[in-house]
Amino acid sequence: MKSKILIAGDSIAKGIVYDQDRKRYAHSHKGFCDLIAPYLSGPLKNTARFGNTIRPGYDRLKRDIAAFKPDIVLIEFGGNDCNFDWDAVAAAPDREHIPATPIPEYERVLDETIQYCLEHGATPVLMSLPPLDAERFFRWVGRDESMRGNILKWLGTVMHIYWWHEQYSAAIQQAALTHHAGYIDMRRAFLARGDFRDQLCVDGMHPNEQGHFLMARACLAYIREQAPDLLKREKETARAVPLYPSLNCL
After folding, report:
1. Domain extents in the chain
2. With a threshold of 0.85, does the pTM exceed it?
3. What is the pLDDT of residue 149?
4. Which CATH number describes the domain made up of 5-248?
5. Which residue in 10, 102, 120, 182 is deepest, having the highest Cβ count within 10 Å?
């Protein structure tokens, strides 16, 4: 029987990129999930949503597991969970501000999500967060100089954005170790390139289509090493994805 894979996550798993021509976020058909799907021997269902955080994502996941009955669940949350209301920060830089999902709650719900998958016969595979470009992200959330000044007053240093984001990625890795879950180190795939900024959109946070290509290669490398039975035979793959032959050359 061919394994069924469910994707639970946010805009990164959904394949959302920033379209600079239209000046808006848009779905790309070259998102990493779309790129790997033709290589898989079984069906893939992507339920990721733009703006998703882990709590509503977990609630949706329970419904999707009941309906789809996946064998494997790829869990990709954190980028929105660690984010702040930057307008509120800029308006009151001397006040305390909390992220969308504070780290203790994020860790707790991530544990619950993994445990729920295991209890319902699905193998959880976690994905670390692609790194962000703190400088570019800072310019993105601070739309003008007055906003940036107040945000920087609250942050102390622009690099605090990167350090804060890193905590959530580290929590994902720790959860995978604790539960002996699958783990795709997507952050390492980007960092191994050295200067990874060309793989990110103008917002400094979402991978662009080049970044998604890199993510697809990392996913396929993981599958080939850990679960090669999930992949089609090479001849079938060649017929299915003639446009992306280099994804086969890992």
Report:
1. 5-248
2. yes
3. 96
4. 3.40.50.1110
5. 10
